[in-house]
């Protein structure tokens, strides 16, 4: 930084902590509005409900400014307590600084401190950058595919397509997650199954919704068939032209995703 110049707020160190006031929750709503638009915004009252019922709202702050957040709701999976991570957003000018990862790791630490070993969330399988983050960078696996989870919306992000979603299951203290978080990437199992889609599908669906719908329909059929047969998504490979979701049998993946 040159002498006499003040540091930009965008360059300020990021800290992550719990949000707890109505003013902070309203800022979370504002971030939603600029990220997704009004059609997908969650009202501030739900943040209060999350706080009072065992959920969590973790905020990323640059100085005193809220620049990102993750909202988690209390839930159950097979009779055990979990956190359902409903949404995570970071202001555009603060992206690509690792803030999303900071928020998820804080979410993991908070859950484990409370004896919760699983965090779940949904994501669009056509958004490959997000899928890579969830599967390869965090170590989540996928056992469920929900067709048109939220209905067809008017959001331009969805390009008029059904809101098909994968359910990320993040086994917080499993061998898989613990290894990935320290940079130990798992090897794709031999004989693994694959579902392959165009690597530019996120951009392509915005230009040609009909082509996006065809890719989504074919992918949905393959995912549902493989998951029904007991396969689990444990990897994602992205090349110049194609991206492949990697499947392995649930029994083969069981030891790596078992929690303590």
In words, what does this structure look like?
The strands form two sheets. The protein has a seven-stranded mixed beta sheet, sandwiched between helices. A three-stranded antiparallel beta sheet has the order 8-10-9. The longest helix is centred in the C-terminal third of the chain and has 20 residues, at 209-228. It is of the alpha+beta class. It starts with 13 loop residues before the first strand and ends with a helix. The protein has eight helices and ten strands. Mean pLDDT is 92; it is low at 1-7. The chain has two domains: 1-116, Gcn5-related N-acetyltransferase (GNAT) (Aminopeptidase, 3-Layer(aba) Sandwich), CATH 3.40.630.30; 127-260, no CATH class.
Detail the topology: elements first, then pairings.
Elements: E1 14-18, H1 22-36, H2 44-52, E2 56-62, E3 65-77, E4 80-90, H3 99-113, E5 118-123, H4 128-137, E6 141-146, E7 165-171, H5 175-181, E8 193-198, H6 201-207, H7 209-228, E9 231-238, E10 242-249, H8 250-257
Parallel strand pairs: 4-5
Antiparallel strand pairs: 1-2, 2-3, 3-4, 5-7, 6-7, 8-10, 9-10
Helix pairs in contact: 1-2, 6-7
Radius of gyration: 19 Å
Task: Report how far the terminal alpha carbons are from each other.
Answer: 47 Å
Strand content: 25-35%
Oligomer: single chain
Helix content: 25-40%
Tally of extended strands? 10
Task: Specify the number of helices.
Answer: 8
Shape: globular
Question: Can you summarize the main beta sheet?
Answer: 7 strands, mixed
**Please, how many domains?**
2
Mean pLDDT figure = 92
Query: Low-confidence segments, ≥5 residues, pLDDT <50?
Result: 1-7
Strand arrangement, largest sheet? 1-2-3-4-5-7-6
Query: Which structural class best describes the helix and strand composition?
Result: alpha+beta
Topology as a string of helices (H) and strands (E): EHHEEEHEHEEHEHHEEH
């Amino acid at each position: 930084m040159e002498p006499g110049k003040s540091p930009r707020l965008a360059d300020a160190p990021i800290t992550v902590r719990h949000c707890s006031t109505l003013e902070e929750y309203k800022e979370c709503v504002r971030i939603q509005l600029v990220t997704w638009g009004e059609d997908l915004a969650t009202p501030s009252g739900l943040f209060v409900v999350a706080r009072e019922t065992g959920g969590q709202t973790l905020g990323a702050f640059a100085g005193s400014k809220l620049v990102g957040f993750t909202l988690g709701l209390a839930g159950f999976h097979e009779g055990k307590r979990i956190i359902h991570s409903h949404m995570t957003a970071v202001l555009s000018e603060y992206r690509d600084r690792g803030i999303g990862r900071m928020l998820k790791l804080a979410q993991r630490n908070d859950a484990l401190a409370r004896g919760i070993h699983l965090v779940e969330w949904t994501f669009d399988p056509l958004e490959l950058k997000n899928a890579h983050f969830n599967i390869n960078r965090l170590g989540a696996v996928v056992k469920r595919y929900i067709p048109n989870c939220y209905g067809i919306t008017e959001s331009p992000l969805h390009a008029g397509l059904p809101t098909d979603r994968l359910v990320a299951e993040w086994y917080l203290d499993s061998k898989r997650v613990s290894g990935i978080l320290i940079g130990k990437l798992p090897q794709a199992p031999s004989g693994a199954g694959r579902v392959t889609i165009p690597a530019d599908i996120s951009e392509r669906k915005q230009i040609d919704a009909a082509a996006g719908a065809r890719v989504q329909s074919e992918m949905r059929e393959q995912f549902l068939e493989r998951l029904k047969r007991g396969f689990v998504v444990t990897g994602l490979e992205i090349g110049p032209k194609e991206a492949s979701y990697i499947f392995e049998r649930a029994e083969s993946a069981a030891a790596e995703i078992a929690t303590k």
